[in-house]
Amino acid sequence: MSLEKIRIFVSALFAVALIYLATTILLVTKEISATRSAIIDIAKQIQKIESNKNLERIITEVGKISTQIPLIISEVEVVRKLVPPLLHQVEQTLEIIPSILDEVAQVRETIPPILKESEALRADIPVAIQKAQNLVHSAKDLSKEAGSSAVHGAVKGIITEPIDVLESGKVRLMRMGIDEDVKE
Q1: Residue 76 near residue 82 (C-beta atoms within 8 A)
Q2: What is the pTM of this model?
């Protein structure tokens, strides 16, 4: 390369660097202007906060919260200690679930025969109820007959017993009389 070409290249490079520097200075100036206006806005907000009557209340609340932080930390530590046993218990529960699902599947298999048996019972129950009602009616009829026979027998016994006693007494008296006549 010739010296002339290097000179042109360095001049071009220097021109690009100057353009970059000028652009950077311009952007920094704009950024400083924006930062300056933001600082003014922040200063105004700080003045409002300082003059605000809620500042004391906010400070008090922050103080209360900061006193509760150790308690919260200790509670978090307790929870951290509880997590591993809980995770272990969850793992054990997860291990048991497949056997429970197997049992549920077995129970489901028994349901259709039970439903069929229930359906058969539903069909047989009205017939059995009718037979039972017939037996009850027959028992009622038999008890009525037995009751009337018992009443009839009791009435007959009450009325005929004295007559039977008298007749047997008459027969005895007659025998006695006959026996006495024979003795005389």
Answers
A1: no
A2: 0.31
